[in-house]
Design a protein that fits this description.
Layout (H helix, E strand, L loop, with lengths): L4 E6 L4 H11 L4 E7 L32 E6 L6 H11 E6 L9 H8 L13 E2 L2 H10 L2 E3 L3 H15 L4 E10 L14 H4 L4 E4 L6 H8 L7 E7 L6 E9 L5 H8 L1
Helix pairs in contact: 5-7
Amino acid sequence: MSEKLQVSVVGASGYAGGELLRILMNHPNVVLKQASSESHPGRPIHSVHANLRGLVAMKYCRYDELGDCDVLFAAVPHQVSMKLMPELRKRARRVIDLSADFRLRDPKLYEAWYGVPHEAPELLTEFAYGLAEINREAIARSDLVAGPGCNATATILGLYPLVKAGVRVRHVLADIKVGSSEGGKQPSAASHHPERAGCVRSFMPTGHRHTAEVLQVMGADDPRLVEMSVTAIDMVRGVLATIHVDTEDKLTEKDLWRVFR
């Protein structure tokens, strides 16, 4: 690449935003132009993300101070991104959204799983689902990319080789163990350290919203096909998905080796 991309981040003070800043600052083809935070404007980035001390001298700006750039990452909460997206598209040719707002292509499915009507339904089909392992070419072509959900990613990566091979799946049960950072920076009864340290607790045993992403990738309509049971364990980062798959086809161990290699 002859010229480095000018990249900015909206909502860069949360966990996802901080990790994104770390990756971008170490990317050889990227120049970090701006990082916005409505809760920390004017403060040095390293005062919020101490691990970035010595790597960046930049200060947070406000959202309305963002200028144009080549690529704009949105790391704002769910249901906020869809409100901002029409304006974000004016700031950059390419927008990559880390929230759940543009992962599903059907506005009715979004409302069913997230409990609110989508505020920019006309944009849903314009976003490429941003899981590179299964959608690399579409991501490369698209100016709008939706980052996948964490638990959806773990489940899809384990399940997709079967889907790609055309194996007929009767039922999927994904038993998922997750760390506390999945809950985001704002503590709650489900994610606050005193509530979950030293214990194992059911976080979302049924009805997890990331199920919709798995079904979409599988090309399935019946929500009973996939069950996700998410358990919080005494860990900060990471997701472990143990996936049990009942198939119509009888597969030998050799068949499975061929599918997953």
